[in-house]
Amino acid sequence: MRRSSFALLAPAVLGLAACATVPLPAVAPAPRPVALTPVPGLERILGRPADVATTLLGPASLDRRDGAGRGLQFTGAGCILDVYFYPDPAAGQPTARYAEARLPTGAADTPARCFAAQLAARGHG
User: Fold this and answer.
1) CA distances from residue 20 to 7, 23, 71, 83 in whole angstroms, order as listed
2) Phi and psi at residue 21, to the nearest 5°
């Protein structure tokens, strides 16, 4: 009785498959610190942890995490302020590194004006 050529080759193919190396999963590099972007008028929150922003502006209307970063969105006083927090090795915790603002219509606003308006609306102006 003749065996098929597959039956003869199967043990050899399986043996070679067992020797194949499986690539190791890539290890994500540690996030690099994000440079602080100075914005005049935001000195009270930039470079500081999230609890400082929430103490001044109240609870965030949106809290979004994206990798090592975190974005808090504050709405009120006719504008939307987004504050972005990234790991800060010097502080030992994430700190605010950047902010941007817009009007509810989507038109651009300055972060300093929006921050001041939201502070004033909460009685912290």
Assistant:
1) 21, 10, 44, 48
2) -90, 145
Q: Give the model confidence (pLDDT) of 78-101 as tens digits.
A: 999 999 999 999 999 999 999 999
The secondary structure element, H or E, covering residue 125 is: none
CA separation for the pair 40, 92 (Å, rounded): 24
- Which secondary structure element, helix H or strand E, spans residue 106, and what is its range? none
Q: Is the pLDDT of residue 5 over 70?
A: no
Structural domain boundaries of the chain? Answer: 50-121
The token duo for 75 is 């709405």
The C-alpha atoms of residue 97 and residue 39 are separated, in whole angstroms, by: 10
